[in-house]
Amino acid sequence: IELLLRAIAGPSPDRATAWRLELPEPRATELAECRLAVWFDDPFVPLDSDVRAVLESAVETLRAAGANVDLSPQLPVTLEESHRVYEALLFAAFSTDRSTYSARGTAYFLRSALLHPRGQAPRTLKLVRQRHEQWLRAHMKRLEMQARWCQFFERYDALLMPVTASVAPPHHNKDHDRFGRTYVVNGEQRDYFEQPVWNGVANLIGSPATAVPAG
After folding, report:
1. What is the pLDDT of residue 103?
2. What residues have CB less than 8 Å from 77, skipping those under 6 apart?
3. With contact defined as beta carbons under 8 Å apart, do 192 and 183 qualify?
4. What angle do CA 200, 151, 206 make, to 5 degrees?
5. What is the tens place of the pLDDT at every residue in 9-46?
6. Do residues 161 and 198 lie in contact, with contact meaning Cβ atoms separated by under 8 Å?
7. How far apart are CA 135 and CA 123, in angstroms?
8. The pTM is what?
9. Which partner from 13, 23, 105, 165 sits 20 to 30 angstroms from 189, CA to CA?
């Protein structure tokens, strides 16, 4: 990860003459020196039991190998708080891209909005059409969360968390009905747009992150 970060991180060419990036040396060079926090629990998007079992097994392996693992850290945000800000900024970014719009897709979008007035489709429409003032408030909230996470990582070297709540779901062959799709967690049908919630935490704050095979 360190080698990769040194290769891709830094200023864009038009800013390179003004500043340079100097990454600090790692605080830990042995597993026993690593301070790891774990975040597997949040009622906003619960984990499928199969996914949770794999993650817990990985944590036990790390602990047995000597890592210092905190199973109940004081987290700076809730999952829902983080996602609501991420969601607002994400759909605002999509507001000017209409390359994937179609008459059929729009019809299914409106159908989902009517069938589920409190669901993802109406919320998406509202966020795509949000005022600039709303975007600024979400952006300021993102900066505030970044500051909170910086304090968190003064105490920990890494945070272990799921990428998604489930394994990859079967393809539904309905690309025009994006808001009608669901996925299954512990036998329960849930909104497919929960898929980016866990990995969106790092995306929102711009934190370095990687996905590690664990199963």
Report:
1. 80
2. 145, 148, 149, 201
3. yes
4. 30
5. 888 888 888 887 777 888 888 999 999 999 998 999 99
6. yes
7. 15
8. 0.84
9. 105
Query: How would DSSP label each residue in the chain?
Result: -HHHHHHH-S--TTTTTT----PPPPS-SSGGG-EEEE----TTSPPPHHHHHHHHHHHHHHHHTT-EEESS---SS-HHHHHHHHHHHHHHHTTT--TT--HHHHHHHHHHHHH-TTSHHHHHHHHHT--HHHHHHHHHHHHHHHHHHHHHTTT-SEEE--SSSSSPPPP-S-TT-GGG-EEEETTEEEEGGGTTTTTHHHHHHT---------
Cα dihedral: 128, 173, 180, 132 (round 10): -10
Tokens 């996602």 locate to 83
Residue for token pair 């993102």: 142
